[in-house]
Design a protein that fits this description.
2 copies of one chain form a homodimer. Chain A is α+β, with helices and mostly antiparallel strands. Helices cover about 35% and strands about 20% of the residues of chain A.
Chain lengths: ~150, ~150
DNA sequence: ATGCAAATGCAACTCATTTGCATCTAGTTT
DNA sequence: AAACTAGATGCAAATGAGTTGCATTTGCAT
């Protein structure tokens, strides 16, 4: 049942940290601290969890550069996801907040023709990533408006 | 002193709403409800303001499609800005949260070659806008890291 | 000028996130 | 393997952005 796993180095790997890491690793989209908390509560391996611990762990992971913290457009709470080699952008419905994943990152086709990044680099800014969201109205909400 | 101004139609234009609108119009970047509140408090034209009124007004403006509500990457509170004919994207420093405005929108050069938008439209989704942020580390924070 | 639906001020409330502090534990040292 | 300790956790109370109920006020249409 218990698998032997290896975790990134550099920090103390407590049971709680492993659990949070595992949840993030198996997640297919960014999760909020509360979602992670609930996810772990469903598999009460042992002992209690404090929601504050989840927040502290997420802060630590972020400082380690292991995860990314963002928010959904139109939503208030923060969501976290493991840094992976690929990323996904979404189209967000301004009315019902449904999110539709985009097939690929439009940004990748244009790195060469954008002078923006060059200019930033020239100014000493190191670009490590980007965040892109399209927004508008989904088919359902379009329909109900008419 | 008092200028005669015209405001968009469709809603009741109270003193408070005019004040919020004026602040947003003269702002060069998105502002939070609290920033707007403080801005107005500095010019105590008459009477008191309730922060809740600011929030309600901003919600109304958003429903009217007059303003856009977003958040800064890495920050928690919401910021609002008047919808104008042009928009600005930023590069955000993950360390000190400094924001560097980009000269133009990289997205505009690529509308034609992206299939994403077409696919969304085909699925009934109406794209009305987008949000883009680059992130990384500014020259100062790069320096202090080394 | 009058009347009323809509807007505001105020205070209490929600909910995500943070913090102080006593206790516990991973990982190292002996 | 037991001891040690810096750092991690649980708990409960605090914070801060944003919301809501309700009595009062005010645009603006008549």
């Amino acid at each position: 049942m218990e698998e032997k796993r290896t975790y990134p180095q550099g920090i103390k790997w407590t049971r709680q940290r492993k659990d949070v890491y595992d949840v993030l690793e198996s997640a297919s989209e960014p999760l909020s601290a509360v979602q992670i908390y609930n996810h772990i509560e469903k598999h009460p391996a042992e002992g209690n969890y404090a929601i504050s611990t989840i927040y502290r762990i997420l802060t630590t992971f972020e400082e380690q550069g292991m995860i990314t913290k963002t928010t959904w457009l139109g939503d208030d709470s923060c969501v976290y996801e493991l840094k992976r080699n690929s990323h996904t952008h979404y189209a967000v419905c301004l009315s019902c907040h449904k999110r539709i994943p985009l097939h690929d990152c439009p940004f990748e086709h244009m790195h060469d023709q954008s002078h923006e990044e060059e200019e930033l680099q020239a100014g000493g800014f190191t670009v490590t990533g980007h965040k892109l969201e399209l927004y508008g109205y989904c088919s359902t909400c379009n329909f109900h408006k008419a």
